[in-house]
Each structure stands twice: as structure tokens, then as C-alpha cells.
Amino acid sequence: MKQYYVYLMASFQQVLYVGVTNNLERRIYEHKTKMHPQSFTARYNIDRLVYCESFSDIKDALAREKQIKSWRRSKKIALIEETNPRWKDISLDWE
Fold first, then answer.
1. pLDDT tens sequence across 2-61
2. What are the backbone angles phi and psi of residue 42, rounded to the nearest 5°?
3. Do residues 13 and 66 touch, judged by C-beta distance below 8 A?
4. Would you list the DSSP string of the chain?
5. Could you tell me the domains of the chain?
6. Which of the four pLDDT bands, split at 50, 70 and 90, describes residue 95?
């Protein structure tokens, strides 16, 4: 079964990025290595995965991404801090 992920990344200065992907490890690797040098995440050095959710339906994932993107910054921060109060890079736990 295919999985889709909505994720939030942050820079050291807490600049936020919300994205959706079907391959979270590959996508985070692309962000961390600045594979797309002109991208928002490369420009603002956004390289820490601080939150993610998984979905089995792409429509649900896209709807959730759109919902989170529409939120005020304070609500996005509250979402992150619910599960990750220290803003730890959760991708560092991957083997």
C-alpha cells in the first residue's frame, strides 16, 4: 500500500516549510543536500524535519498540506511542539 506524507521542516532560525511526498526519506535527503539550489528550503537553509503525518490516500495528504499551509505561523508552531517541543530533527532517528 502506497504511503503519502505531509511534513514540516524548519531552519535553525525556525523558518518553516510544509510539503507533501510519497517518499519521505528521499525528499528529506533532497532538502538536506540542497539538491535544488534555487528552492525556498535551500535559500533559507531549511534542513530539519520537525513534524510529519502519513496518509494512505493522496487526496487526504494534499488536503492536509493545504490546510496546514493556510494556518497562521503560531498554529503551525503549536502543531510541531505538540509532538516535538525541542524542534529535534526527527530524520536523525532513521537508520
1. 999 999 999 999 999 999 999 999 999 999 999 999 999 999 999 999 999 999 999 999
2. -70, -45
3. no
4. ---EEEEEEE-TT--EEEEEES-HHHHHHHHHTTSSTTSHHHHTT--EEEEEEEESSHHHHHHHHHHHHHS-HHHHHHHHHHH-TT---GGGG--
5. 4-93 (3.40.1440.10)
6. low
